[in-house]
Amino acid sequence: MNQYAIALIPGDGVGKEVVPAGLQVLDAAGKLTDAFQLKTTAFDWGCEYYLKHGRMMDGDALATLASFDAIYLGAVGYPGVPDHVSLWGLLLPIRQGFDQYINLRPIKLFEGIQGPLRGKGPQDIDFVVVRENSEGEYAGHGGRSHRGRPQEVATQTTIFTRTGVERVMRYSFELARQRGVKPDQPLVSATKSNAQQYVSVLWDEVAREIGQQFPDVPWRSVLVDALAALMILHPERLDVVVASNLFGDILTDLGGALQGSLGLPASANLNPERRYPSMFEPVHGSAPDIAGRGIANPFATIWAGAMMLDHLGEKQAANLVMGALERVIAQARVRTPDLDGTNTTDEVAKAVISQLVKR
Ligand code: GGG
Predict the structure, then answer these.
(1) Which of 26, 59, 66, 259 has the fewest CB atoms within 10 Å distance of its CB?
(2) Whose CA is nearest to atom 13 of ligand 1?
(3) Would the pTM of this model clear 0.85, i.e. be above it?
(4) pLDDT tens digits, residue range 192-224?
(5) CA of 283 to the centre of ligand 1 (A)
């Protein structure tokens, strides 16, 4: 039996509710397949920790986390701690410190969910956004001077490196190839090279160079504003989208809306070379408005857990969890309020477990 050391960081708000729910499902999948056990260690890092200790996580957090096989994270951020403090104190140091340069965010409308787009069903909305996760607009480069004076200045420099763009492009072209080449769904590279004549032009040049190494994979470059419109008007034309850190973040919230609820989309922060642990999390944040009521949708966290199992090599269990999730959604009997249901987080997790059957 395989054993995996998993670091749990529930974090803030609903993160503390959805991570235990997700873990129940993953443990049940381990028992059912008799293939693996998750040895978990929970860390109480987050905004409450910050208010007590003046930092979001331990000073040696990365050294501690480095010994784990994967990290399962809930959400970060809570009123009382500025958002940039919580994000730069926990999530971004882990993504950057562990060189998790791929943020994989699948966008899929599940059977049984009424999406917001007229005339578009599950067959039309099924694509993956590959978000560059280590640099770009989130490089953390910049500063403020002359604070509070009329001449105050703030800069936030976008940094694209050739290495950084090459590796995210290569990953995306390989993913498009793996998903099966479809001439009517070329890989889309999100750009803004009309306005951003340095960073986005480098991005486009590298896309062309890497594209030449994948002559079988059709691709095109689309301005990010036009891409936002395309996601609404013709999502069926999308299969793999590669985008910079900020563009990818914004587009995938739009993608979450296309899925019918922000309680659904999941994401994987991957270090593809496996030099460091990868991290799996729902796309959504800590949702302080519903935190503590036990009604947060655990779907995204369970889905992120399935991505973690897949990454660990437990493909059978990952597929069983996804199948169970899809059946619960399709049956529409057990749902949290974001999907117009009346059930609790725990009831949804239990419903998913009840659908976990070997077929
Ligand atoms: N689930 C993790 C979380 O709290 N995400 C909210 C957030 O603000 N994320 C920013 C990002 O993904 O860049």
Answers:
(1) 59
(2) 249
(3) yes
(4) 999 999 999 999 999 999 999 999 999 999 999
(5) 6
